[in-house]
Design goal:
This protein is of the alpha/beta class. 24% of the residues lie in helices and 26% in strands. The protein is built from 9 helices and 17 strands. Strand 11, helix 5 and strand 12 form a beta-alpha-beta unit. Helix 3 crosses helix 4 (193-202) and helix 3 (156-175) packs across helix 8 (303-316). The chain is globular, with a radius of gyration of 20 Å.
Length: 350
């Protein structure tokens, strides 16, 4: 079944009231020859949804349906879409991006996620002015290049968060060639961090979970299987960890985060990867970089790597830890994530 009017739950204005998403009917984007239409069954709730809906990351146009961890089934394909790979009924997913130009240097080099003309799954603007609407809805359609088959053995509620939180943490580990012998630190044991720890362990690295208290020590060591735990409130332990990590994934931050202290954890020629994105600028003293530490960002990952990651999850038994709520409770989910957090990801189910 397919139609040109979708039904979702939208934010209608900036600020915290945006989290009280309400029913909204809206026109689907124009269906094109390269498009796949998905009937949505699941959509993960991401911190990006909150930052975007409230206007924390900048002004947007309302009403806006958020959600970019979409899983569902193919119900329609365009004339130029592979009818075998995307057969009607195939279970597929879409993450934070839904189209790129496919002609620039990055796209040709299989780094489509870096395309400067890319369109995000929500708030993206098409050439005709249409603003993309996300996955807190009944349907979604986009270019097939960003539609990834979900492998058997990976339940939809487990797969959904991997389409953003998963690839956000997996891609930099692959970029920096993490494997046996690598020393990896993961700051923040939450929606991103709990997957980052699992990926690094599965890749064979020596992994330290890093947090500002001991509250998540058990989960980090016994559930996620990190080999070590570092409490950044313990000054002696932090001093002992000076310069020991080849790669640090920073998935969490606070208003008073001491970025220089965290960067000192990285070994010379190592990488400090900023994955959690504050709404305000971060401040780093130049002397923190004198050991040839690279402070870099990372933006999800290309479609082929998303597919690789999902298969790797099945092979290695990596699983998102989720709370599942009905789609109609999206507002409740957003408020919970904003105020209390989740263990470790919330997924909406239709």
């Amino acid at each position: 079944m397919s139609n040109d009017v979708y039904h979702g739950l939208a934010a209608f204005g900036p600020g915290k009231d945006a989290l009280n998403v309400k029913p909204h009917s809206y026109p689907a984007k124009k269906f094109e020859d390269y498009d796949v239409e998905i009937q949505i069954t699941h959509c993960g709730v991401c911190g990006s949804d909150i930052h975007t809906a409230t206007g924390g990351w900048g002004d947007i146009t309302y009403p806006q349906v958020v959600g970019h961890e979409i899983v569902g089934h193919v119900v329609r394909i365009g004339s130029k879409v592979d009818a075998t790979r995307y057969a009607i009924g195939t279970r597929v997913g879409v993450g934070a991006q839904c189209r790129t130009c496919l002609t620039c240097v990055d796209c040709k080099n299989k780094k489509e996620h870096c395309c400067r003309k890319g369109i995000d799954t929500y708030t993206g603007v098409y050439e005709d002015g249409y603003i993309s609407q996300g996955g807190y809805a009944d349907y979604f359609r986009c270019h097939y290049n960003w539609v990834v088959p979900i492998p058997e053995g990976l339940p939809s509620e487990i797969a959904a968060p991997m389409l953003c939180a998963g690839i956000t943490t997996y891609q930099p580990l692959k970029k920096f060639k993490v494997g046996p012998g690598s020393r990896v630190g993961v700051i923040g044991i939450g929606g991103l961090g709990h997957l980052g720890i699992q990926w690094a362990v599965a890749l064979g690295a020596d992994v330290t979970a890093i947090s500002s208290s001991d509250r998540k020590r058990y989960d980090a060591l016994e559930v996620l299987k990190a080999q070590h735990y570092l409490n950044t409130s313990d000054a002696e332990a932090v001093a002992a960890a000076d310069g020991i990590f080849d790669v640090v994934l920073c998935t969490a931050f606070g208003s008073d985060t001491d970025w220089d202290k965290l960067i000192r954890l990285v070994a010379s020629d190592g990488a400090f990867v900023v994955l959690g994105l504050p709404e305000q600028p971060i401040s780093i003293k130049p002397f923190s970089l004198m050991t040839q530490v690279a402070v870099v960002g990372s933006h999800v990952g290309p479609p082929h790597m998303i597919e690789e990651m999902l298969n790797f999850a099945v092979e290695k038994g990596v699983k998102t830890i989720v709370e599942v709520l009905p789609m109609e409770k999206a507002a409740e989910a957003l408020h919970q994530l904003d105020t209390k957090g989740a263990r470790y990801r919330i997924v909406l189910e239709r």
